[in-house]
Design brief:
Layout lengths: L2 H15 L24 H11 L2 E3 L2 E19 L8 E15 L4 E14 L7 E13 L3 E14 L9 E15 L4 E15 L6 H4 L6 E12 L5 E14 L11 E13 L3 E14 L8 E13 L4 E13 L5 E16 L4 E16 L8 E16 L2 E14 L6 E11 L8
Antiparallel strand pairs: 1-2, 2-3, 2-19, 3-4, 4-5, 5-6, 6-7, 7-8, 8-9, 9-10, 10-11, 11-12, 12-13, 13-14, 14-15, 15-16, 16-17, 17-18, 18-19
Length: 431
Amino acid sequence: MHTRIKIQMAMTLILCLMSGRAGAQFLQYTPPGGPEEPPESRQEELEREIDAADHHLGAVRIAPWAALRDAAYVKSFFSTAGETPDDFTATAGAGFRAYLRNGPKATWRAQVLPQLVWWAKQAERRQLNGRYTLGFHGFFNRLTLEVQGGREQQQQIVTPEVPVLTSARRDGGEVLAEVEVSRALFAFTAASLTRLDNVVGEAGDPRVDQLSLLDREDRSARVGLRWRPRQRWMAALGAERSQTDFETGASGALDHSNAGTAPVAEVRFNGRRLRFGVDLAARSLRARQGAAFVPYDKVTGSAAVTLRSANRLSGTLYGSRNLLYSLSPEYAYLTDQRLGLAFDVELGARTHAHLFVEGGDNAYTAFQALAPRRQEDAFSYGASATFQLARRVSLGLRALHSEFDSNLPGGDRSYSAVGTTLNLLGSLGRL
């Protein structure tokens, strides 16, 4: 049986048998490596952050942060002419998080975390990024209410079509509310508005310049019921309405604007040895008036199963399927489908190692039947290690390699990076 068929069958089985947060799902590229372990609850995560903020400015608790992040040697290769040059990049940042208690059950949270991105050869890619947000978190007797907004700008790969690091900016906010109906039943709603911009500047590379075609505005709203009979178990059912509006005009950008509704489902279990979760949305997306978009009717989402052993070793089988907008004028979008395996091991009290390998395919949907079939096999592997040098000082090492093998001539490409991160005052985590 062909490898691609095996991957599709395995992904379908995982997505149908096994859910994450009952919040908005944006259609965007996620880096290889597998899922992070989610916190037991958002309230407990916030409490841990506040406990670690041991500097005071009157009633405000301050957690300073400083780091040299993602200092890495990066290589991107395209089989066509005009490769992106090998280069060295690093990100330096310093800032703070601030917390203000507004009574015993409500907290204001602010983040001011500027970061300077530096490239050795490509001066045009140097950029001031960062995270600047303000939020309110209320955990009342029967009501949980969270409101947050601001700007997050980071260096990342935004599409597998052009596996090159670029700065991407998100402006917007979200509102999440949950009401306790009974001891085990909760009604929830979530709404978000996000403006996505790729800050390409004057890259001089036409492949990078065209990333601005993905600039858009995403709106999403979700309502449903969550059932939590025990602390370890949670299941949710609901519905989501999404709308995406792309920029059009003199730039000649293709308008992939679309809207649709989707039933959503979520299941999570967090046991001592076994943890699993799945988050699914049966999407039905249609073009907005005048837009160039091919109808999309598929299940998207992610799933993961983790087994922990008694000797600090855990293994995770994970999979995902997502829709990503295409940069090509011949194709509306691609379906990014992956299946991966990751291992985590605690090497003593201060060292953590992570290894992963994942494979999948990118299947493109054309606007016209006469367009050539486009399909890519995707394969990634990597490893990372984190060393806790002191209470708030940690050193991270990582290596990553991704390959995309296309059935069309000149479509092959790859991305490799080897680098390190030094957190001097706490950890920022994944942006």
